[in-house]
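Hello,

I think I submitted the zinc ion job twice by accident. Can you confirm which output corresponds to this input? Input:
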Amino acid sequence: MNKRRYIKVGWLVDGSGRAIQEQMLLTVKNGVFTDIDRYEEPNGLDPAIVTDLSLCTILPPFVDCHVHLCMSGTTDQDARKQQLTADYAAIRPRIAEHLHDHFSHGVLAIRDGGDRQGHALRYKNETVAARKEPLILQVAGRAWHKKGRYGALIGRYCQNNESLSSAFSRENDSIDHVKLVNSGLNSLRVFGHQTSPQFSADEIRELIIQAHLRGKKVMVHANGQLPVRLALEAGCDSIEHGFFMGRDNLKLMAEMKTTWVPTAFTMKSYADTLEPHDTQIERSVVEKNLQHQLKQISLARDFGVPIALGTDAGSKGVLHGESVGEELKLLMKAGCSMPEAVRCATCNGAKLLGIEEIGLIAKGKPANFLVIRATPAMLPEKFSFLEAIYLDGRPYNME
Ligand SMILES: [Zn+2]
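Support: Only one job matched these inputs. Its output is below.
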């Protein structure tokens, strides 16, 4: 048990954003990396005790910082309506499938962005011991939105004119983080259309103070300049989507080190799955939305905004697990190098979720990593095709 194990890898992408390292030797003891060095020969090691992954690239397990486990990525509108109102008994097996989809695509930690009935929270509470895959699940329960504004699909509003912070402080759901909705949806019909904020800066600040006192981070759905600015100034932990937030907000995020989860693939997916009779979505608009978001990502990279990958899996056409590879490709299209894009999908996500077990391949860290049989140049196309997942230094049996 206490023996050292050695793993030779062709290429290492360690999650920190640094350049790809070739021909590396990883030493593992008690499930933890004790050494990471260049592989040199002769090295006195008995080849029989070295696991040979020299045709493979390894990288840390992925973190998807924005999913909705109750919804599948189906494009069937009737099925989507059903999922929104389905009871827990119907949703429970769906959630189990989605978790399996995440795990089999190397996504070992996910942050749920809320559902209207709190099913994902209930699932987490009721299946602690019974869940099949070793996957870290963090949930928001039901999101908060303003009465009469967008958000009923994923949450609830404060009753009887109660303030947001007072409603929150009465709640005793065992959530991991708080989800607040502070704008409308990004328009799929009018390019650049912005909606007003749902809450005042004071309302948001009071909620965030309460949440932070209870050790919970606050993720804010916000599109457009003003909704994003108010959430940032109030001290939120992450901006979700952030379409059309603008340059000044990106600068502010860089200064405040607030994480951005841009969910760009949602727009590509709307375009890719658009049906001719669909009058709710304008193809040219979603395509322009995507291009605009990629420009914002490029600016964010220049300014040094911490970007964490989130897919909004469960949105139309956005499949659980598989879409992480799609979002990675878009980060690269926006100008991130492959190691930088991987950092968004690993280390930055792990930081946002406050987890230590995954995020980096480094000395002293648990030996958890993904193995892809591909050179780095082939990697973007192969993100979804895993050769193996190693946990504590050993290949995990996927079935
Ligand atoms: Zn969402």
